[in-house]
């Protein structure tokens, strides 16, 4: 059974090389998303329980104003527990540490399994780090549109309290992961290249 599956997959890879890469990328990305869904609530709980960082305001990089005239921050983590506050520095660190761990693992898995790249790991890591920083800013800016409404809806409007907070954690992390998924694939195709191996020069027979 396993041999037949391997044979079928090998045939599929030969016939559809790009599609097969995308499918492997999709599977690994979903596994990484599951890891993020497990880690993020743990980090949030740890920061909330053992530190006072939820009460530390972290609102930086104002990029305009909301419809009501209030400032719009790229990283908007107002002090105080959700939904009244924004989770403070505790929420920010929980999100960023989770993303960092997940993306480091993702880097090595995608490089070696999906794209089987044989170019310099250090060059790829450099461009990956730049892409990671850029996507972090993009995802943070987008989060301002959906984070507060989701937590307010589930925790307050629907009255789900702590359960709503956990579900909101999951939803926000899924949205973050979806943004990373669609942005990273074309970037990976550029930085995880396969260079043909050079064959050793033949020596003349004497």
UniProtKB/TrEMBL annotation:
Transmembrane annotation, as ranges: 21-43, 89-109, 121-146, 166-188
Top-rank taxon, per record: Bacteria
Keywords attached to this entry: Membrane, Transmembrane, Transmembrane helix
Name of the protein: GtrA-like protein domain-containing protein
């Amino acid at each position: 059974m396993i041999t037949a599956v391997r044979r079928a997959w090998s045939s599929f890879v030969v016939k559809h090389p790009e599609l097969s890469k995308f499918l492997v990328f999709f599977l690994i990305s979903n596994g990484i998303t599951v890891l993020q869904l497990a880690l993020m609530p743990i980090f949030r709980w740890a920061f909330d329980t053992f530190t006072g960082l939820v009460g530390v305001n972290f609102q930086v990089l104002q990029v305009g104003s909301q419809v009501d005239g209030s400032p719009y921050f790229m990283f908007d983590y107002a002090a105080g527990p959700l939904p009244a506050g924004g989770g403070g520095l505790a929420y920010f660190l929980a999100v960023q540490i989770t993303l960092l761990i997940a993306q480091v693992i993702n880097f090595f898995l995608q490089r070696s399994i999906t794209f089987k790249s044989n170019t310099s790991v250090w060059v790829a890591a450099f461009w990956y780090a730049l892409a990671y920083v850029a996507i972090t800013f993009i995802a943070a800016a987008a989060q301002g549109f959906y984070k507060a409404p989701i937590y307010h809806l589930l925790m307050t409007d629907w009255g789900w309290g702590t359960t709503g907070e956990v579900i909101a954690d999951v939803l926000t992390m899924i949205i973050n992961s979806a943004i990373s998924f669609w942005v990273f694939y074309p970037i990976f195709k550029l930085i995880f290249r396969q260079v043909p191996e050079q064959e050793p020069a033949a020596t003349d027979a004497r």
